[in-house]
Amino acid sequence: MVDTTVATSEGAPQSVRAEHDASTTLVWAKIWDISSPPPNNTMKGQMMPMFLSRRHRRVSIEVHRIMIGDPETRKTKSADQLREGVDYYEECVVRILSPIKKKKMALKKLVPNGETSTDEPTAAHDDSDDESVAESVFADDGIEDTPDYSGWKVKYRLPIDCLSIRKVHKKNVYVTVQHRAIKQNRDIIFHSEEEAQQFIEMIAVQKEAGERRASAKLQGAMKGLNVDKKEEITLLIEIVSGWDLPASDLTSSDPYVVCFMRGVEVHRTKHISKTLDPIWTIKTGALFLLKLTTEELFTSNGLVCEVMDFDKFGANDKLGLFTVPPKVLFEAKGERLEFDLKPSKGATHVSGGIAIRCRHATDYDIEFMNDYDSSKKKQKLTVHEMIKKAEQTKGGKGGLRSVVTVTSKTDRHGPNKGETVYLVRPGPDPARKEETTWMTEPQINEEVLKESQNWLDAGSGDLGRIYLEVLECEGLPNLDAGGFLGNKTDTFVTAVYEDTIVKTDVIDDCLSPRWLPWSNRAFVFHMMSSSSPLYLGVFDYDPGIGDDHDLIGRVAIDLTNMHKNTTFVLKYDIFPTAKLTDRVKQGSIKIRLRMEVDDERKMLLSALEPPPTIYVNCKSRKDWATVRYTCQGKVDTSLYSMKVINSYVEELLSYQHLVYYIQDAVLAVLLWKGHFECTILGHDIKLPLHSMNAFITLTTLVEHPRLVPCFFFASIGWLLIAVMGWRRRSPDPWSRCKPYREFAETLALGHSMAAPPSIEPYENAEEAAKFQQKMQQRIIDAEEAARIAYQKQQKEQEDEMAEIQGVGGDTDISTKQRSGIVSSIDVFKPFLFPIQQYLDLAVGYLRIVRNVLVWEEAYISFWVATGCFGLAVIFFFLPWVFLLQWTARIIVWVAFGPWMKFVDVFYVSKIKPSSEDEEAEKQRQAEILRRLKRKDKVKEARIQKEDATKLKAMKKIMFGKFVTRVPVVKQDRHQDFPLAESSATPYTPKEHSLAELAMKEAGYHRTRLPGQHLVGNMIPRMETASFTEAPTGAATKDPSLLSKNTPGANPSKDSDIAAYAKIGAVVGTAGLVTWFGVPVLSAAAEKLFGK
Question: What is the model's pTM?
């Protein structure tokens, strides 16, 4: 026996205490020389011959003390003051040592695929005769404070609880090692019976202390946590990403992560090919659930994760590992946690790190993970079925059925005898089939305007709701072959609003389709942003597999200038694109629209936030093309095209038309032309407010130049107000925008005092047409005058050049090359395509500025104007001239005075030039500082890429793999305005009984389609709006909608002014009572009790 027992001065095996701030301390260790044949059986049933030569080994029983708690607190305590379970806990392990020699072939393992299954896997060891031993299960745990193993290395580390003695025969000890699914019978042969007996007694003593140590370890690990140790918990863990991982395959690796808990593999990600910066998503196994008790968690060493390099042929390489402590796992709330990789057993150095997230799994997390695991077999999530059910539409048939289907006839025996009746498509009203199967055109037009029966409630957001009903289309082209046989356009409409895609039923074989109240035509959208347009696309349905639905036309509806509680019946012309200069009308569409806003101030304040970036996903490529055409039009401006370049150039040149508007505005200001209508003494006059403002401003600036910054910002706000006033004076009611006053009232009072607008069909149509024609003619005349002037100037230059050439002649004496055949290949694409991209960027910014300037983005325009007025007020009181003057004085007097000579004499001249080593050191320090500055930026960019990659993968499995970006900020070349026959009327809600209103607010006759906007990390959730709109404890949300005789109808509701008046009256009354009542009561009490 080699007695290497670590002992104190008393000689008994006691602990050797290190400094108090040490994390691990060796208490004592006992080592014996032994002989050990290979294990004679395993769980696999492999039989090993017992006559093999006995191998020289050593066995060690060790007790280690692991320090816990705050190191600074432990420094204040002496060794005797340290308490088990509070400052430390102990662990007992058995180690088997083997002599250091040349490595042989790596051992096989018991676990599948040659992977490890331990808390801290290690590199392969020698001794190929130990094939049945899963050495990594009992591998060294990395404790640094160990006995002197000179000439020996640790082969296995066995927790004391894993070892049990089966029998003893003289100096042979037969033990069983069992850890989870791994079981081995092993013989240990000592040099004498006394040593064997000593080993057995020491194992028994340490096992008796095992329960106490486990309790102390649990107590220390759960320090500060008030939880039940028997409580079952479920953790949601995500392997987020890695960075700067070691390159195992020359320049890259194929990394994946294997996770272990208490020596058992609990999860394995898929490998990411050829990268050192992998990002794992739900598709590559980033997420998993870990279910265990609190005691099992805190008595473990934590979650051990080993990063491996996948090799198709040969063993997988180990790149490194890291451990997540139990307390970190338990207390994590989904935040991103970063861990540096540590070398696995046998490795010397690793680089890089891994980021994870962890939190206690919610019911939704568990349900989603179970649903996702089951969907791998059925290829469908629950949300897929929900979306499919909500998107079910009718109509759409093949061309042969269109030919044989009769869509119109003369009624010979019915109630419409002698009249032409039309087949109602996609089908009749289920409640009135006989009456609504065949109808006349007037009957259909009458039915179209009735209230819709079924609504699809879709989208996310809580700013408000948009009620859309698609009524009809007119004048559509026939895009189907065989029109003379009855095969015509099969029309349907796709609506895209923010994160929602909806479709109407298909109306077969009709160029002027009508959607009736019982068809799928009515939608409720929930609003996330005040700037988002509503996109509508009209398509010809194509049942073919490889063909897209043909786009007929599309329209982008601006909602920012529409008022709440108003029913709009809007008719728009539709065009294939809105991004190019030239476009051709393809028919028209009529819709009915209404907007509800619960909190107008919240809607206004939301415009201060950056517009959200919204993507929508589709399951099929055909649906993806439909959404893309709806949002962007037929022409893809991101592809190289000379047509797009020419359109951009024409659009940029069209901005010269602003000169004509500026000329009119300048003349109106200079000539004091009136524009502000008012009535004075019974006479209607127009006041020149802009001229008055300009005169006061300029005369003030002449006398007080310090007010230049103040008036600069005030002028920007004034310009926006002037443009708003110009739009408000337009004779076309659909070209007007909301006034600044409405936004100011909303900001101050919480709601606008303006009444809902009322616009009749064709209101001011003639005046609007004349005004538009006048402006167009003005532009045409100005352009013609400019063209004539340019031609005249060009003619003069040509005459001058001809006269000069007639005298001087051609001075070029070189031989001219004949023109060859022009190549059909576009050799200009490498030069023109970057120009197109720059033009696209410039045109996009100009469109945004234009929309803000002309109040197309009304909410943003209001905030820009208000901000400019605020800055004007600040600069009015800010003494910027004084600050600038004294700053300049200080700089000049300090930096340019004669005393700078003393700086040269006593400082600059004494600076010695740096040596090469000093200069190199300075550069090295500067490089370190640059790297530190870049570190945060690189980390931020990495996190953004992680979030985008994970969100894309999550949305793909939830909504489909085809992704389209939905524009939120208006960037179209042309703005779509309603036609003159559109109308607007104040919305008067229908009265309901209590039961009817409760059913309506609970979502009766509504189908819910969740939006695609996901919130949260790890497993993001859809923002779902509840059907039930009534607040808790109330029968309905809006009792004013109840009929008069219903209990609770017409509740009294004070205005803000009335409410403030009541509060003031109560406060005033209380003050008066206190002022007069208290002295009276005091005097009465004094007289009563004084007697």
Answer: 0.77
